[in-house]
Amino acid sequence: MKRLHPKSKWLFFFRFIIFEITYGIVFIPVVILWVAIIVGIIEGKRRLVISDWSSFLELLLGIAVAIIFFDYIWAYLTYYFWRYEVGSKVLKIESGVIWKRFVSIPYERIQNVEIRRGLIARILGLSDIWIQTAGYSGRGLAEGIIPGVLKEEAEKLKEELIERVKKAKEEAAAGL
User: Fold this and answer.
1) What count of other Cβ atoms lies within 10 Å of the Cβ of residue 54?
2) How far apart are CA 22 and CA 112, in angstroms?
3) Residue 166 zone, left/alpha/beta (φ > 0; ψ -120 to 50; rest)
4) Same domain assignment for residues 111 and 157
5) What total of structural domains would you count in the chain?
6) pTM, to two decimals
7) pLDDT digits (tens, 9 = 90+) for 122-147
8) Domain containing 134: what range?
9) Which among 80, 100, 121 is the end of a domain?
10) Residues 99 and 127 occupy one common structural domain
11) CB of 86 within 8 A of CB of 162?
12) What is the DSSP pairing of strand 126-133 with strand 83-86?
């Protein structure tokens, strides 16, 4: 099975960071407040431990560093466990660090092969390939996604998949 391009580690890393910044604006202050209350209870105080801005900023910085470190490790593991294979009859995709996902998409079920390039992917020279099937494409989703493929390789892979889809549909029509 083929691996993604090594730059895809950074693609995953920056996607995780953007996700956390988006949701962290609300979530991080809540976590800090929760930690401050727990620490205050442990120390036997009936008030928040955060009494000045310096301790608040230290706690915030510590949480941010821990999240960035975790994101880098998780991005590397995501890259390491994501594989795909263009077989003779099906496209196989394996992904997942803790919960593994194995997808086999028969070529005759493929309806559309799409290349997407977000801002981070364009900066890194990468593309995402979305493989849509009849059951998924109506909802704007893709049954198979191959992220972190070089732009040139993505174009070749798309053409190869389209050729295999045509061949599979011709064989199905001929009754083979």
Assistant:
1) 9
2) 31
3) alpha
4) yes
5) 2
6) 0.78
7) 999 999 999 998 776 556 678 899 99
8) 83-174
9) 80
10) yes
11) no
12) unpaired
